[in-house]
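Hi everyone,

Forwarding the result from last night's run.
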Amino acid sequence: MTSPNTAPAPTGPAIPKSRPHRLRTAVAAAVATALGAAALAALPGTASAAGGLSVQYRTSATGATADQSEPWFKVTNTATTALPLSEVKLRYYFKSDAPGATYRFACSWAVKGCANITGTFGTLATPTDTADRYLEIGFTAGAGSLAPGADTGDLQLRFYQANWQTLRQSDDYSFIAAQTSYADSAKVTATRAGTLVWGTAPAGNTPTDPPTTPPTTPPTTPPPGGSGTLWDDFTYTSHTDPRIAANGWSVRSNAGGPGVPGATWDPSNVTFATSGGNTVMNLETSTDGTGAGTEQTEVLTKSTKFKNGTYAARVKFNDAPTSGPDGDHLVQTFFTINDLKAPMADDYAEYDFEYLPNGGWGELSNILYTTSWETYNPDPWQAVNTHTESRQSYAGWHDLVLTIDDTTITYYIDGQVFGTHGAAYLPERPMSINFNQWLIDLNGQTSTTPRAYQQQVDYLLHVKDQVLTPAQVNAKVAAYRSAGTAFEDTVPAT
């Protein structure tokens, strides 16, 4: 989350307005993407009858106009063998509300989990009177497979104009106002591994499916070339080790946000120990239930020279304190950030892994966010960001990977795609790399008994201007450790 050395702290992922949904009123999982610009080849647009799956559709927003469109889907495996959902893509076709309109996607609730549902927008090669855009729905590997005859259950989805202007649905190809209960819809298409197997696309617009995730057997060695690498195995002795500053890190001591007003940032709570044969950095945050008695921790690069490429860290999140009562609204992080030059400045950037072991920001229990920021206004609060979330415990060690290229921001956890965010959130300026642990507020646990929480970091790797798969990251880490390299920084200054 936002570093105090750069900008005031955002107060959590900003969620666009939406009507309450029947099955869920908690924070909606907004996985937003920018409008894709690539046009598709014109091919016949009707699926084979023997497709192996069927798609049912319903809408919970039936008006000719609406603040957001709400297409809900259910996919059924009609074949006799298992259907891996990662091979399936659905397309919902619609007419844009203006030539330059951009749209945002959100998953409100899904039986398969919103973290396993992706949504991207594209432009049709052959526009028609009822369609010139589409929303493409995909599934991560975490969605699993469907057994013969099984279905996905509800996929409660929605999309809206980025400026929240009213959109018109009555002229949309895939919209069926009267379909308020699930029924087959041939106006939604489905592909499996790139082959159209369900539905009829608008004339001249057969969907294609270029690969958007790493191959199932990625190469085990990093690609050659590149323009700089930062590697740190955190083999330091204490927060006063002179190599920390020499290697470009700052252990924070200055006051300010984010976190509890009156809290301090204590460098002595950053320590180093051995775990699993490797030296790890430990960040300890403690509190006695008062601001003055709260000590938070942060370690960040002094240089803001990191932009596109791959960011990777092995981080241990912890659900329980090492001592004292549990329950504080804690944030454990790995993120990149630059400074906010002015409210709503469009060259601000921030990309977060944030784990809340005890909830916070309206959540009641553990939740993990990955959030991509375009900009924000601290007062009055206004944010332009998108996030992916997963409500479950992430206690333990996890491999966190973030990749940024000229089109996409992708977050991985333990080798699996966790969230994909679009071009609207790409960075315009270089950033710093940060780890911190802090308290949102003191409302989660009101006891005055002292307690302490820990977050550990095993290593940090950044490869400039290269998008590596998680397997390539692991190979590069293994190569550094095999060679006994504790630190390397060949990333040029900006």
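The radius of gyration is 23 Å.

Cheers,
N.
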